[in-house]
């Protein structure tokens, strides 16, 4: 569990977070401008704020060493509707690139 404002350790996806990842897939694809043939959640980190930030690493191409998307997702609090918003995309990234939250969100 993350403390308020701090990022959690990198974790494997659990079913709930994987559901969120697949829910925002269309928005990720729209922002990048392509429909991915594969979309495999790899790892994530989260940050508790007035809502929750997620940083996802998703494998989207297995050619060569593999290509990933790093996506920053904000989830509003349930009392604010719980909306999911893709706020930042880093693409292309390699499988070996570390999952690092944007500098402005690091504590």
Automatic annotation (TrEMBL):
Q: Which domain of life is it from?
A: Eukaryota
- Report the source organism: Carassius auratus
Task: Report a single Gene Ontology molecular function.
Answer: cysteine-type endopeptidase inhibitor activity
Where in or outside the cell it occurs: the entry states: Cytoplasm
Keyword Transit peptide attributed: no
Q: Which Pfam families match?
A: Cystatin
- Keyword check for Cytoplasm: yes
Gene3D superfamilies in alphabetical order: 3.10.450.10
* Transmembrane segment boundaries: none
Family under the similarity heading: Belongs to the cystatin family.
Q: Per UniProt, which keywords does this protein have? A: Cytoplasm, Protease inhibitor, Thiol protease inhibitor
The name of this protein is Cystatin-A-like
């Amino acid at each position: 569990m993350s403390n308020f404002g701090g990022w959690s350790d990198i974790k494997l996806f659990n079913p709930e977070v994987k559901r969120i990842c697949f829910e925002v897939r269309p928005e990720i694809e729209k922002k990048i401008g392509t429909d991915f043939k594969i979309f495999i959640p790899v790892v994530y980190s989260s940050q508790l704020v007035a809502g929750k930030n997620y940083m996802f690493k998703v494998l989207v191409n297995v050619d060569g060493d593999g290509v990933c998307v790093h996506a920053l997702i904000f989830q509003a609090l349930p009392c604010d509707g719980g909306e999911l918003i893709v706020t930042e995309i880093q693409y292309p990234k390699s499988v070996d690139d570390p999952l690092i939250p944007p500098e402005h969100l690091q504590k």
